[in-house]
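User: Please predict structures.

Assistant: First:
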Amino acid sequence: MDQFLQAAIDEARAGLAEGGIPIGSVLVCDGEIIGRGHNQRVQRGSVIQHAEMNCLENAGRQPAAIYRRCTIYSTLSPCPMCSGAIVLYKIPRVVIGENITFTGGEETMRAHGIHLEVLQNEECIRMMQDFVRTFPDLWNEDIGV
């Protein structure tokens, strides 16, 4: 398995262990992780701390030239908010663990020339489907249902 997807899965597991939603993300520049994060809506009582937003926050301020060399990995298809941040910072590549459970803002990202790679990773699928089955109300709250 790709080491960066594995790092995102590790982040998702950390979020689940904290009582949160198991979605993880890492930001990679030139072959190195420069940011990592996981969904912390529950832990922080936040409406914006999705995995990708948390990852970008943890990467700190970066020059535009850095973002343009990055790939962001996410265990689940980024929602419209997170997709908007990816578009805003012109991150050119997104590797998605799975989009069966949820398909976020993929069309928006593609429309802005962002290359998406969807892996349909079995571990990502199983983790999310187990979570949705066990905590449907929390999942529905997270995606705005």
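Second:
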Amino acid sequence: MNLELMLPLFIYLVLVLGVGFWASRHRAEGNFVQEYFIGNRSMGGLVLAMTLVATYTSASSFIGGPGAAYKIGLGWVLLAMIQLPTVWLTLGVLGKKFAIIARRVNAVTINDMLWARYQSKAVVILGSVTIILAFIATMVVQFIGGARLLETATGLSYQQGLMLFASCVLLYTIIGGFRAVVMTDALQGIIMLIGTGALLAGILVAGDGLPNLIHQLREIDPKLVSPQGADDMLTQPFMLSFWILVCVGVVGLPHSALRCFGYRDSKALHRGILIGTVVSALLMFGMHLAGALGRAILPGMDSPDKIMPSLMMEVLPPWLAGVFLAAPMAAIMSTIDSQLIQASATLVKDLYLNYLSPKQEKLEVRIPRLSLLCTLILGTLVLLAALQPPEMIIWLNLLAFGGLQAVFLWPLVLGLYWSRANGPGALASMVSGIVSYGVLSQWGIKLAGLHAIVPSLTLALVVFITVSLLTAPPSREVRELFEQKY
């Protein structure tokens, strides 16, 4: 075991645990559900920006994305920049209106908003089941990424790395709740920025500058420096699909949309859009360029997912590599904690409180204990599932992302902006979206060469509009709530 690498990482893990313990002190200040699941809606602009960026920037972005760039080339770097406006889209489309309505109906979860809009138990139950299943799949990806990172960089076995990583992230999430999640996200966002910049600088120095690195890539395979990428993978249908999947469709990701509940005021929203867009651009460009140029530094990698930690070991001094090992670790942890806390909220708030809870006077004691227990059980299940990892984690992550988008994108967006949207239309859209996405993905069917998410979202939109127009409109009270000027 390399102690020079482990010491800075250990200090970082202790730091995030400290944030969790600090956040736990706020629980006594207010309602447990409001504090534990959305932090009493107190985020400022910097924290809002960093938590959105950190939540979206996951193992897929910091491990799988650079791995894909390593394999495909500079064309993947250009493709990755499609993700640039994700923060602007999420906060711009959902932000203000979402937050105001959420406060009026006292919404704590995405399904609270769906219930307020559609008044349909079926919509809430389907949404809850989708969130839990998809989040388990994506959290498995993050656990695998964290374990592989520690395995590659520190000499720990995969199982040892998995246990160390999982124990830390579970502990601070269980202890601190949403407030710990967003505060550690802010810390992790800063670390990701510093780490990405340092790694990219180290690669440029080790490779004798950008022109020489590009020349070496061309020597390995001329297509590594072409827009189409190695094996001409980046076709127009693929790029359109990727744009929908990782940019436009991100508005429909529940763990990103939930961030619109927790900011403090309009000033925080506007500042969050600006800071988040700049930080997202720097991270996406830096990490994917590092992965692509890494092919010239380490041309014989057996697993593309190991390129980021391997590059850190290769181009940085051991002690500095240990410091910046925390950058991809931060990216992974920031996504797990967000999904873990929301999956727990879905089980406790959307299902237990609404359909299974006993007499109301017992809830003050039951809910805190049940919330902590659900978070622990979900984390343990994900840990067990991560013991058998697939080869390239980016595809599993994108599969789960697409499923969430197929279910939630149109109910969230049309629910806010189309007065005629109703419960039957939302339910039909969710069912048609997830069924078509599952069928197309399972059988590898690509209509016109497009990823399954494009026809699935198209079908879900058509079904939503058609069914809504053919059935009764929403009640006057619902229309008044969602049509007010904000």
